[in-house]
Design goal:
By secondary structure, the protein is mainly α. The chain has one domain. The chain contains 4 helices and no strands. Helix 3 packs antiparallel against helix 4. The longest helix is centred in the middle third of the chain and has 129 residues. The model has no long low-confidence stretch (mean pLDDT 83).
């Protein structure tokens, strides 16, 4: 705060702030000479630094462009591989679907064939049972007819010889019908 007061005191005593146009008193020549010497003497040094910096920047830009081109090439190659992989996946899916269809058709055909064989066996077994039952019924009917005939013959014909002959004739006729 003291310095601030001193500045105002000095300004008040010297009649304010003014511009000094005397070149020798201001040291402007010294500053310009110093800048000129620095430019002349530092031109080679500063030029080489700027040239190195320029070379480094250009090289960095070229490296970045090379990396960009390389990355672009790898991206294109990866996209080609992706497209090829998608084609292979699509082919595999199509082959899988075709194989599934063939397997299903084969299974359906096998199931139909198996069902047909089972149905034919069941039908043959049914016909066999039907024939067997028919023969058993026929045998029972013949047996009943023979028993009735024997009973009627015994009642109608008292003598044994006549009855035996009639029974034998009837049995022979019935056996002939069965065969």
């Amino acid at each position: 705060m003291e310095n601030f007061d001193q500045i105002f005191t000095l300004l008040a005593e010297h009649e304010g702030i003014g511009l000094n146009l005397n070149i020798l008193e201001t040291g402007l020549l010294n500053i310009l000479t110093l800048v000129g010497i620095l430019i002349y003497a530092g031109k080679d040094f500063l030029g080489s630094l700027l040239e190195e910096r320029k070379t480094t920047i250009v090289k960095g830009v070229q490296d970045a462009e090379d990396r960009l081109n390389e990355a672009q090439k790898r991206l294109n190659e990866a996209q080609k591989q992706l497209n090829q992989a998608n084609l292979v996946i699509s082919e595999i899916r199509n082959e899988t679907i075709a194989t599934k269809k063939v397997l299903l058709e084969s299974e359906v055909f096998g199931a139909k064939k198996d069902l047909k064989i089972r149905f034919e066996r069941a039908l043959a077994m049914f016909k066999s049972k039907e024939r067997q039952i028919f023969l058993e019924i026929k045998q029972q009917i013949i047996s009943l007819v023979l028993k009735r005939t024997v009973i009627r013959a015994q009642q109608a014909f008292a003598p044994k010889e006549r009855a035996t002959t009639l029974i034998n004739d009837t049995i022979n006729k019935l056996e002939g019908d069965l065969l």
